[in-house]
Design brief:
The protein is built from eleven helices and 42 strands. By secondary structure, it is of the alpha+beta class. The strands form twelve sheets. A five-stranded mixed beta sheet has the order 1-34-35-36-37, with no helix packed on it. A four-stranded antiparallel beta sheet has the order 2-41-39-38, with no helix packed on it.
Length: about 700
Amino acid sequence: MHPHAHAPRRRLEKRLALALLATFSLSASTSFAEPARTSREHIAAATARVDEKTVRANTATSRDWPTYGLDYAETRHSKLTEINASNVKQLGLVWSYNLESTRGVEATPLVVDGIMYVSASWSVVHAVDVRTGKKLWTYDPKVPREMAFKGCCDVVNRGVALYKGKVFVGTFDGRLVALDAATGKPVWEKDTIEDRSHSYTVTGAPRVIKGKVIIGNGGAEYGVRGYLTAYDAETGEQKWRWYTVPGDPAKPFENEAMAKAAKTWDPAGKWWLNGGGGTAWNSMTYDPELNLMYVGTGNGSPWNHRKRSPGGGDNLYLASIVALDPDTGKYVWHYQETPGDNWDYTSVQDMILTDLVLDGKKRKVILHAPKNGFFFVIDRTNGKFISAKPFTEVNWATGYDKNGRPIETPEARSREAFDSVPGPFGGHNWHAMSFNPKTGLAYFPVQNVPINLAEDNSWSHNNKQPGQPQAGTGWNTGMLINTQPPKSKAFGRLIAWDPVKQKEVWRQEYASPWNGGTLTTAGNLVFAGTADGRFAAYSADKGDKLWEAPIGTGIIAPPVTYEVDGRQYVSIAVGWGGVFGLMQRATDKQDHGRVYTFALGGSAPLPQPQPYALGELISGVKYDPAHIPEGTKLYVSNCVFCHGVPGVDKGGNVPNLGYVPAKDIENLSDFVFNGPFVKKGMPDFTGKLSPADVEKIKAFIQGTADAVRPKP
């Protein structure tokens, strides 16, 4: 008999039992009636139970989804089996919920006892009744829209944390807010940013470990020093802060770990002026038995290794996995995946904790597939390197030696233009990975976004010369980008990876880079969304596509699954965006951000997204061709990372300026100087650009459109 053959009967028995219970409740004295499932009293009681004990107990059942990665190991592996490979074709929409957002949605929803907590762009939090798909409350932290330019990668938020009746959200402008889980009312708020003269942001999901809410930040592209901070979940009192890179060596180092790290940096580069980077903006996991938490750290600031540390050096603790004591924040060990990072190779991609049998011995390990293109297996008890193999095309290193150091290619640190593979978008980015212990496979989206890098000889901190990538909005890379057309090809794919054999087992090709994270289940399934607007289920063992729903708009967030009243649901938050999705897209549809929730037998109609409003290629704007060279440099320094190349890219959740009405470009100053889109996140260039500069940018926009226009 099929192992899942009894599932429908068990489900029927559960529903009969619930029906009998409901009948009894109706006939019982009203003095004994329980509060409604969506009442404040019930939500308060249900969420108050969420603590370390219940999170660990839920790991055995997967009925709820109480933390970012489902469990402390962040496996994103559900033990639910009602939906499985044999019946997933019966999956249908139960409800969809409008997040009322038009920018990127990257959140993992949390679900406890049928109450969903999910964040949208601009750090807005929604509480939703899973049983009906109706809104319970929303909380808008009112992030100042004019701060959008301080974030590299869209005004996104990857989710919230839940603990003892409170919901915790990190806001784009750097606050940590504790909300009452039943009402959405703020309980306390803390400013997590220690120096607001720098462009820090918070886009990651907090984690709660041993009663402490832990949050990092982003901003390494702009010039910041990374750190993690722990706050008391009840009061918001700061408990500890751990920096990822050393500060000014003229001042006392905060701890022994920082003194050790400083020896791997060259002070001739005055790295502390540009912060050094290492921002911890995404991944954290926790091992309760070892009492260790693990954090992935970010890229160097600036990207260019020779600029921030001219004499070389590994530049600890950039691009590393670091183990900390969660009680004190004290450093325990580290493993650096990309010594002397030179390519924006962050290590903040999701980590998974599991046990593997390697060479006949059971090992406690970390599985990691960071930006640099290698899949790592690390001993999580001591940080010792076990193995690393490329999971995608890689040209910066040929492999890793027995000591866990990369064997770099001569071209990797070339001063000349170099096709970086993977590029700064990463071979795998933040899009969540999952691990299925039954198949022994990890599942994650792989990509290549072609990028050509060259050393910027004229770079200095905050120099902001025209032609330096996005320097006008604060970027400090020390690199020139795509001065030569990249030769590598764009692609996206979903792969299943065997971490023991360190090899790919199966793959599904995608239409584009920038696809959503994954969920795997004990029902032999892998769920994932795609950049071209499909939500699909595959067999976990073989990779066969078993089911697909046409969502229409691109999906970047990972799905979740959970059980409510004996029924299994699958939900995914959808909203196209992120750093690639600002200027690129793989579908001709657009929609508000939404949460889609599916179950067996669901029959609700799917929302119908509207066609993407792409106009005709711009024409007729008068310009002086002599202005194009300077206009090109000004556009690269102020516009390109949001709007893309006019007429070449097609626009993402920000329009491509080659396809807007000609009158908008003719009157470009009205948009550039305190224009109507400032309240939607567009920078105000007043005092940063001159009217003459705008005329040159207009020349570049129309001149580029004319150059790419098909000839009759």
